[in-house]
Design brief:
Layout (H helix, E strand, L loop, with lengths): L1 H22 L11 H4 L12 H9 L7 H14 L9 H14 L7 H11 L4 E2 L4 H4 L1 H13 L6 H16 L11 E2 L2 H10 L2 H8 L7 H14 L4 H9 L2 H7 L9 H16 L2 H8 L2 H17 L3 H20 L10 H9 L20 H17 L6 H6 L2 H6 L16 H21 L1 H6 L2 H13 L21 H15 L4 H9 L2 H14 L6 H18 L3 H8 L3 H10 L12 H16 L3 H9 L2 H11 L5 H11 L5 H7 L8 H16 L19 H5 L12 H8 L2 H11 L9 H11 L1 H19 L6 H69 L1 H18 L36 H4 L3 E5 L4 E5 L6
Antiparallel strand pairs: 1-2, 3-4
Helix pairs in contact: 3-4, 3-5, 4-6, 5-6, 5-8, 6-9, 8-10, 8-11, 9-10, 9-12, 12-15, 14-15, 14-16, 15-18, 16-18, 17-18, 18-20, 19-20, 20-23, 23-26, 25-26, 26-29, 28-29, 28-31, 29-32, 31-32, 32-35, 34-35, 35-40, 37-41, 41-43, 42-43, 43-44
Length: 933
């Protein structure tokens, strides 16, 4: 019975469990299907191997002689990494490369695997994640640097493959097969790691190791050429390795291909464009490099006839120009290159029998045209070294350049350039003459330079038809006209007259230059065309030429003022609108040249000065002084000061009135105050002296320590007189006087007190400096000199105190006057209020009388009493009949007559007169309003 029960219980439990299992849901298993299973991945599957084991196999001393196993392992690496290496594996890869490179000398079995691995390195590296480029950046840079160090291997094939690999990495052009789950690095990353590595510096240094192998040398130069083409960082690294000198010295090594000179020149040109000019010039500035450049230039000049050779020749000429311009001690003269270059520059224009130029020809092709301009530019650079001038003079350089100073309508010569080419060379030659003519002035005169220039200037202003091409930098603004030729013609004359050579100046005057230039300026002044920057520049230069010609000769000044043309010119420009000074076209230079022309061409000749005064020239100068910026004030004040030597000038200055009716004295005081403010001179708020011990000293002068100066050197107090305008203002007031000045305020008189005593205060400042220097030098004057110094010290102190007391009295008088004026003003206000109160009281009494009859009667009685009291008591004779003048019981206080004036309500209360009364409605139709101001 118990067994049956147990069995039944077991069956029941089993049924319950089965039922529960049936009720529970079946679990859902997600099936993960990868791209690899589906087959959607593109490319080969990457199967990496352990590079660390390969490295250990190669470096382990126990397996050092197992060459077959080494070769098998390396081939396995090449097979598995045939598409590219991973960024994270670069460390092991380059360890393997270094090991193979070191063992090539032991066994050549490593050569082929080394070349294959280098080819794979040239392919873009693979990255597993986007962040790998940032994470492995430094590792990649160091790996590329290791690639350059492999140039130590003596195998030519390895060195060539290294160069090819570097180019492949830098260009990132090697196409690779797609690999699953990997992505090649970007083009920017590949360039960046090459530029930031020191592979370029290593390649430059490796040139010494491959000196005897032309093939490898050309390939290394090719790599350096590509690396330096666009990268400033690479050029800086190459220059740090002295690339300029190394490449230049190997430029003329034996070469059967002709590529060595080309690649070397291209590298130097890239360093010039992307590197530091000064550093490249320093490296090329030695006798060896200059000699190589000379030989290379002469080789291409004499044996090269193709466009390719002519381009290299021009590039070498630019490099030599750069070296010459960078240093004044370049060894070009020692190598004889200066003489050869000057001969080339004058070859076409000057006949020569030099065998060096016997078979040389310059054609009209673009390269030779550029070569001609480069030669002209080079001689300008050569002329900056005085030691080269005698060579330029011997080869008659100026005569060759003056060949182009002629009208373009007569283009004849040994070489028939096209009109556009001739114009460009002409302007280039004239630009060079601006520099060369002043320093070769004797050659200039022997070439009759003045005559040539004046003839060309006459052609430029003539009506002959000529349409300029306006090409190049020098031809700007000259398209369709002759302005470019005229511009440089005037520039040459300006450069020549700036030498102050009397023979040149007299020759120009004798040929009528003054009248010719004044005629051009008169035409420009009367022209209605709008002037541009070139027109303004030419007018400024012509005024400067006139100033230089007339400065030291009264006869020339009279010639300038004859017929009034010169005076009309300067007054025309002095009337220029001050707004144009900041236009950016050069009007500020024009107005400065005008003031200088007044100073040099007018001042000093009484006839010309009188004509200038008659044209109100002083008024125009003062107007300019008022409206011009501070930088022009010094020149204008100097011109006015010298003009004041003519006694007729002072009345013009005294009667002048500017803006807001200010006088010249007030304007000068205002300029003085602004000048002292800029200098940092200490003054009180009211303009009086704040420091009587140093009344004129500014912040800069006060901050400088006193030093012992030799007698030939001016002290700081003397230099201060020249560096600011205070001395000129003091001298001007000495001319116009310190009294009877109109338009002056108290502040002006306070300033005028300092101006009047400026010379005494400045002398005291010099004495104090002298005594201070004696103390520094520890020199004790003898007793009489000591007493004199003490007397001067007291006099200096008394002068400063007297100025301060005068200023104090002026300010006190002004303060008292202000108080008096204030009292009078308030008294006037009180009087006005009394009158208003009286008017109000009178009106109140009037209203009261008219509205209250009793008040009117009382006022009448009071009036009668007043009238009676005002009469004189006269004793009348007995029997005299007296008649009363007043009407009795008259209810008015006004004196009656035939006409009665009735005072009505004031108009300002009614708003106007009443008009158009309507009798029907009893209203006013219209009321006129009167506005009281």
């Amino acid at each position: 019975m118990a067994t049956v029960t147990s069995t039944a219980r077991s069956l029941r439990n089993a049924g319950v469990v089965q039922l529960q299992n049936e009720l529970q849901p079946y679990p859902v298993i997600d099936t993960v299907v990868t791209d690899e299973v589906v087959g959607s991945l593109k490319g080969h599957k990457f199967e990496p191997i352990s590079l660390a084991k390969v490295e250990k196999l190669l470096t382990d001393p126990h397996s050092a002689c197992l060459y077959d196993r080494h070769l098998h392992a390396l081939n396995k690496v090449i097979k598995h990494y045939k598409n590219a290496f991973l960024l994270k594996d670069l460390v092991q890869v380059f360890k393997i490369l270094n090991t193979c490179a070191d063992r090539i000398d032991e066994n050549e079995v490593y050569l082929e695997p080394l070349l294959d691995i280098l080819k794979i390195v040239g392919k873009p590296f693979f990255k597993e994640k986007s962040s790998d480029e940032t994470s492995y950046e430094q590792i990649a840079i160091q790996s590329i640097s290791q690639l350059g160090y492999l140039m130590r291997c003596n195998e030519e094939a390895v060195q060539l493959q290294i160069c090819a690999t570097i180019l492949s990495i830098y260009a990132n052009t090697s196409p690779g097969n797609e690999v699953q789950k990997l992505c090649p690095c970007s083009y920017q990353f590949s360039r960046m790691i090459v530029e930031n590595s020191d592979v370029s510096e290593t390649l430059v240094k490796s040139l010494a190791l491959i000196d005897g192998n032309l093939t490898v040398k050309l390939e290394v130069l090719h790599v350096l050429q590509e690396l330096s083409k666009y990268s400033e960082l690479t050029c800086a690294q190459m220059l740090a390795a002295n690339a300029g000198s190394r490449v230049c010295q190997k430029m003329l090594d034996p070469d059967t291909t002709g590529l060595l000179l080309f690649r070397s020149t291209e590298i130097l040109w890239n360093l010039l464009e992307n590197g530091v000019h000064e550093e490249l010039s320093r490296q090329l500035n030695d006798i060896t490099c200059v000699s190589v450049l000379r030989d290379a230039f002469m080789q291409t000049l004499t044996t090269g006839f193709s466009t390719y050779d002519r381009q290299i020749r021009n590039d070498l000429l630019v490099l030599m120009t750069l070296v010459l311009a960078a240093s004044s001690k370049s060894p070009f003269l020692e190598t004889g290159l200066i003489k050869q270059l000057s001969l080339l520059a004058t070859f076409q224009e000057i006949k020569t029998h030099n065998p060096f130029l016997k078979h040389f020809r310059i054609q009209t092709n673009p390269e030779d045209f550029e070569f001609k301009k480069l030669l002209i530019n080079l001689v300008v650079v050569v002329s900056k070294q005085p030691i080269n001038l005698h060579i330029l003079s011997e080869n008659r350089l100026l005569l060759a350049l003056f060949h182009y100073v002629k009208s373009n309508t007569t283009n004849t010569g040994p070489q028939q350039w096209s009109p556009a080419q001739f114009e460009e060379i002409q302007l280039h030659a004239m630009s060079a003459l601006c520099t060369l003519s002043p320093i070769l002035i004797q050659d200039y005169m022997s070439c009759q330079g003045n005559t040539r220039l004046l003839l060309l200037l006459e052609w430029c202003v003539s009506s002959d038809d000529y349409a300029g091409h306006g090409n190049s930098f020098h031809g700007s603004g000259g398209r369709g006209n002759k302005r470019a030729q005229m511009r440089y013609c005037i520039r040459i004359i300006r450069a020549v007259v700036s030498t102050k050579d009397e023979a040149v100046l007299q020759d120009l005057v004798d040929q009528g230059t003054i009248n010719q230039i004044m005629g051009i300026l008169v035409s420009a002044a009367n022209s209605s065309d709008v002037d541009d920057a070139i027109d303004i520049e030419m007018q400024s230069d012509m005024l400067i030429i006139l100033s230089s010609l007339c400065e030291m000769d009264i006869h020339r000044k009279e010639l300038f003022g004859s017929e009034g043309h010169g005076i009309d010119i300067v007054t025309h420009y002095l009337k220029m609108n001050p707004v144009k000074f900041t236009s950016g076209l050069g009007h500020h230079r024009l107005i400065l040249a005008t003031v200088d022309a007044v100073w040099c061409c007018v001042v000093g000749c009484y006839l010309t000065e009188d004509a200038f005064l008659a044209k109100e020239g002083v008024f125009l100068l003062l107007d300019l002084l008022e409206n011009s910026p501070k930088s022009m004030h010094n020149l204008i004040l100097g011109c006015l000061l010298d003009l004041c030597e003519n006694s007729k000038t002072v009345p013009h200055i005294r009667v002048w009135r500017g803006k807001n009716d200010q006088s010249a004295a007030h304007l000068l005081c205002d300029i003085w105050r602004k000048e002292e403010h800029d200098l940092g001179v200490r003054r009180t708020d009211d303009g009086s002296l704040a420091n009587t011990e140093k009344p004129l000293m500014g912040e800069l002068q006060e901050s400088q320590e006193l030093q012992s100066m030799p007698a030939s050197s001016p002290s700081q107090a003397i230099v201060d007189v020249v560096e600011n305008m205070r001395a000129k203002i003091h001298a001007l007031f000495c001319k116009i006087g310190y009294t009877e000045l109109s338009g002056m305020s108290t502040e002006d008189y306070v300033t005028l007190t300092i101006i009047e005593q400026y010379l005494n205060l400045k002398m005291g400042e010099v004495w104090l400096e002298m005594m201070g220097e004696l103390e520094i030098e520890q020199i004790r004057p003898v007793s009489p000199d000591q007493e004199a110094l003490e007397t001067m010290t007291r006099a200096i102190t008394e002068d400063s105190k007297s100025v301060f007391l005068i200023q104090h009295d002026l300010l006190k008088a002004q303060n008292d006057q202000d108080l008096t004026d204030e009292k009078e003003f308030y008294a006037e206000i009180r009087e006005n209020y009394k009158q208003k109160e009286k008017a109000i009281n009178d009106w109140t009494e009037y209203v009261t009388r008219t509205s209250n009859h009793n008040v009117l009667k009382a006022a009448r009685e009071k009036q009668e009493q007043s009238v009676e009291a005002s009469r004189i008591n006269v004793k009348h004779k007995p029997g005299t009949v007296l008649h009363k003048y007043e009407q009795p019981a008259l209810n008015t206080t006004a004196y009656s007559g035939r006409n009665v004036l009735i005072e009505s309500t004031p108009l300002h209360l009614t708003g106007g007169k009443l008009k158009d009364y309507d009798a029907k409605t009893g209203t006013v139709k219209f009321k006129e309003t009167i506005i009281y101001e």
